[in-house]
Amino acid sequence: MGLRVSEAKNTEMLGLRDRFLIVGAKAAKTRTRRVMELLDGHEQWWKAVKPLKSLLERFEQLRESAGIHDWPMNAMRHTAPSHWLNFYQDEAKAALHLGHSPAMLHSHYKALVTRRESEEFFELWR
């Protein structure tokens, strides 16, 4: 969904309403509330994020069982902007969704993945 790890851990400041995930200002890195559009299939993943005990431990177990040993810090968070940028085809809209500035998206995430790779990424959610 593109949440930062720190945001996902702060589940009491997250909410779901009308197929939008609301990230409260206290959870957001920028301390600014934002509303993220959920695509088909996202709601089931949101239910998995909702207060789970030892989320980090569960993620590490999943990684290990998948045979992934080297995982960069915030890899999932840093993967999402490239794909959301492809999805929206609009830097401002993607930036609003992710809590970035359009300049940040342009300088760090533009043209890193193909349209087909983004389609495959979003298929994982279904």
What's the β-strand tally? 3
User: Whole-number radius of gyration?
Assistant: 14 Å
- Tertiary shape: globular
Distance between the termini: 12 Å
* DSSP strand content: 5-15%
Q: How would you sum up the major sheet? A: 3 strands, antiparallel
Q: Count the DSSP helices.
A: 7
Lateral arrangement of strands in the main beta sheet: 1-2-3
Please give a quick description of this structure.
The chain is mainly alpha-helical and 126 residues long. It is 49% helix and 10% strand.
How would you describe this structure to a colleague?
- There is one protein chain.
- By secondary structure, the chain is mainly alpha-helical.
- It is 49% helix and 10% strand.
- It contains seven helices and three strands.
- It has helices spanning 5-9, 42-49, 55-65, 75-88, 91-98, 102-108, 115-123; strands spanning 14-17, 20-23, 34-37.
- A three-stranded antiparallel β-sheet has the order 1-2-3.
- The longest helix is centred in the middle third of the chain and has 14 residues, at 75-88.
- The chain starts with a helix and ends with a helix.
- The relative contact order is 0.14.
SSE diagram, text form:
Blueprint: H1 5-9, E1 14-17, E2 20-23, E3 34-37, H2 42-49, H3 55-65, H4 75-88, H5 91-98, H6 102-108, H7 115-123
Antiparallel strand pairs: 1-2, 2-3
